[in-house]
């Protein structure tokens, strides 16, 4: 446990030194501010920029529009940011050969991997929930009369999918020893999830539901009972990716 805590502390220190922590926090905070502002002022902006004589009817924005922006930016931008920042989580150690000294001095390989995973998870957790609470605060300010259902379920689903991608990235980092392999593996994994939807009977097990139907959760048309299969599959995939990463890393020449 002492070795795990020490190596995790090293990871977090590196995130501050290479500005990844600052960059993630800044970008996610910006997204958190933009979500409700876009929902609030986009209709006015569209109206001002439309040519004269052309009128478009836009419904009065509500708190749901703010959360639409949150999930849209979270899946299209937030996850992309984390994947890019974490793609080289082990490439530098392989390149510099620093892992050899650690392992020869008795540091268990699984400790290295779990510390890497913990550091990446910390970065994702802090950034994501900061974005959420900023969005929540501004949404309550601009749309005080708005009501939402299952908000915790919808935002937790997106967060869990981010954890899954981090686990896949860690597996890719072990397999390819560079920053590009994890990106390719993650891209291939996402492609498989999209192809998964071609089989109607298996859709309910697809983790992709966690980031594609958040508004259905928020509006109460998709309940926790209907998500159990995809949540279970996501948990199994996270565990399998971590176990596979440990197994491959134990057999990998450093």
Automatic annotation (TrEMBL):
Single GO term (MF): ABC-type transporter activity
Keywords: Membrane, Transmembrane, Transmembrane helix
Domain of life according to the entry: Bacteria
Entry's transmembrane regions: 21-42, 74-91, 112-138, 158-176, 183-199, 231-249
A GO CC term assigned to this protein in UniProt: plasma membrane
Record's keyword annotation contains DNA-binding: no
Name of the protein in its database record: ABC-2 type transport system permease protein
Organism lineage: Bacteria, Bacillati, Bacillota, Bacilli, Lactobacillales
């Amino acid at each position: 446990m002492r070795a795990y805590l020490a190596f995790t502390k090293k990871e977090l220190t590196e995130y501050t030194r290479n500005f990844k922590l600052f960059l993630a926090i800044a970008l996610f905070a910006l997204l958190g501010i933009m979500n409700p502002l876009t929902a609030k002022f986009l209709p006015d902006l569209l109206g001002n920029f439309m040519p004269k004589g052309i009128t478009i009817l836009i419904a009065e924005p509500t708190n749901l529009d703010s959360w639409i922006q949150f999930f849209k930016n979270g899946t299209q931008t937030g996850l992309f940011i984390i994947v890019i920042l974490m793609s080289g989580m082990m490439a530098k150690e392989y390149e510099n050969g620093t892992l050899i000294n650690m392992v020869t001095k008795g540091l268990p390989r699984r400790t290295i991997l779990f510390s890497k995973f913990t550091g990446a998870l910390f970065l994702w957790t802090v950034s994501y929930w900061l974005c959420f609470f900023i969005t929540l605060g501004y949404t309550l300010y601009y749309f005080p009369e708005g009501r939402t259902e299952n908000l915790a379920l919808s935002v937790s689903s997106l967060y869990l999918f981010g954890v899954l991608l981090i686990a896949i990235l860690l597996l890719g980092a072990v397999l390819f020893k560079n920053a590009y392999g994890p990106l390719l593996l993650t891209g291939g994994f996402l492609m498989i999830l999209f192809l998964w939807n071609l089989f109607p009977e298996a859709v309910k097990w697809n983790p992709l539901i966690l980031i594609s139907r958040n508004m259905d959760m928020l509006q109460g048309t998709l309940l926790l009972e209907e998500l159990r299969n995809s949540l279970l599959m996501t948990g199994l995939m996270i565990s399998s990716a971590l176990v596979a990463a440990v197994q491959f890393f134990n057999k990998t020449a450093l």
